Amino acid sequence: MTTRQGSFELAITQAWYRGALWLWLLWPLSLLTRFVVAWRHWRWQQWPPAPAPVPVVVVGGLTVGGSGKTPVLLALVSALMNEGLRVGIVSRGYGSQAARGPARCMTDSDTPETVGDEPLLMYRRTGVPVCVGRDRAETVATLLEQHELDVVLSDDGLQHYPMARSFEIAVLDGNRGLGNRQLLPMGPLREPVSRLDSVDWRLVRNGSDDSSAFSYQTLGFYSLQPAVSDEWLSVETARERWAMLRVAAVTGIGQPEQFFRQLEALGIICSHWAFPDHYAFDRDELQRIEADIIIVTEKDAVKLRSSHDPRIWQCRIHAELPSALVDALVAHIREGV
Questions:
Q1: What is the pTM of this model?
Q2: Whole-number pLDDT of residue 68
Q3: Residues 60 and 182 in one domain
Q4: 273 is a domain residue
Q5: Whether residue 60 is found in the same domain as residue 171
Q6: What CATH number did the domain enclosing 126 receive?
Q7: Which member of 143, 175, 278, 301 has the lowest number of beta carbons within 10 Å of its beta carbon?
Q8: CA–CA separation, 103 and 152 (whole Å)
Q9: Quick check: is 133 in a domain?
Q10: Which residue in 167, 163, 152 sits closest to 198, CA to CA?
Q11: Residue 167 — left, alpha, or beta (φ > 0 → left; ψ -120 to 50 → alpha)?
Q12: What are phi and psi of 15, to 5 degrees?
């Protein structure tokens, strides 16, 4: 696998999930994290934010890095809309201009630079109102001022206590687990493991419990270039057509190995190119990759629409959620509407 991730970032991530002993050198800093987390939690328990006019559902995680929150949120939007509910999304827009500014609702002219790759993916994929900004509480208020909604889904924000919420979903990776179960920087946790006891629902990617397990279903491959005659390929067709070609999987997500394993499970043999999460791809970098076909995730694809590289195909997936979660969430929302 070719990687452009920083050597320190890669080393410490591997150490978290390998349980490296040298991480105990960071234990004093993790104690500081524990103190800050406990103080913030106590503060917002004493002075909780005022409830929002509609239910706010947080889809968040306990660990840094990707755990599958975006596909879960997209699947929830689809499921709730099928129930006739009006849905909106709030997000910080990590690494974008919006993450440093006041709340605003997205428009068709927005780019990954202005609002972030994940919010832009959600906006284009779902068509529902999406509001981004530095302060999530302000972002929820702005969204509800401009749109009549039945529920607001928060992309991440489990640790953003100033934002009122009525339902929390913690998304976990069944393969990676919680690593060494230590707080940052000694481990990958943003909050102690005990935080999971207070959420309303746990979702575990590739888990074994029917009420909490979810998995990905590959829908197919889509060309980024309208001029390409076949704009969509099924998995079977792609596997057949690309069998004798040089195929490269290129991605800048939190867990690139998950993407690579997914393609291998589909029978698509390819070289692996991993970049840092939210990486802003350079056109020249892609041109230097010697491949006939380049496969990227949907999150990567929103940053590559202007690349005009006919080799690029996005792999579109759908998260299969437990029906018990959808039923419980619909009931919760209708109680609050």
A1: 0.94
A2: 87
A3: yes
A4: yes
A5: yes
A6: 3.40.50.300
A7: 175
A8: 15
A9: yes
A10: 167
A11: beta
A12: -65, -40
- Kindly report the number of other CB atoms within 10 A of residue 328's CB atom: 15
What is the bridge-based pairing of β-strands 130-132 and 56-60? Answer: unpaired
142 pLDDT band, cuts 50/70/90, is very high
Residue 6 confidence (pLDDT) above 60: no
Query: Are both 285 and 328 inside the same structural domain?
Result: no
Q: Are residues 116 and 244 in the same domain?
A: no
**Model pLDDT, residue 57:** 98
Q: Check pLDDT > 90 for residue 58.
A: yes
Mean pLDDT of the chain: 92
**The residue count for the chain:** 337
**Could you give the CA distance from residue 95 to residue 286 in angstroms, rounded to a whole number?**
21
Asked whether residue 114 falls in the same domain as residue 141, the answer is: yes
Torsion sign across C-alpha atoms 335, 119, 95, 178 = positive
Do 292 and 329 share a domain, yes or no?
no
Give the pLDDT score at 2: 65
Total structural domains within the chain: 2
Percentage helix, strand, coil for the chain under 3-state DSSP, each rounded to 5: 35, 20, 40
- Same domain, yes or no: 22 and 169: yes
**pLDDT tens per residue across span 156-187:** 999 999 999 999 999 999 988 999 999 999 99
| pLDDT band for position 7 (cuts 50, 70, 90) | low
Under 8 Å CB-to-CB from 50, ≥6 apart: which residues? Answer: 164
185 and 266 co-located in one domain = no
Domain that holds residue 277: 218-317
> Taking the CA of residue 248 as centre, how many other CA atoms within 13 Å lie in the half-sphere pointing to its CB?
18
Residue 4, in any domain of the structure:
no
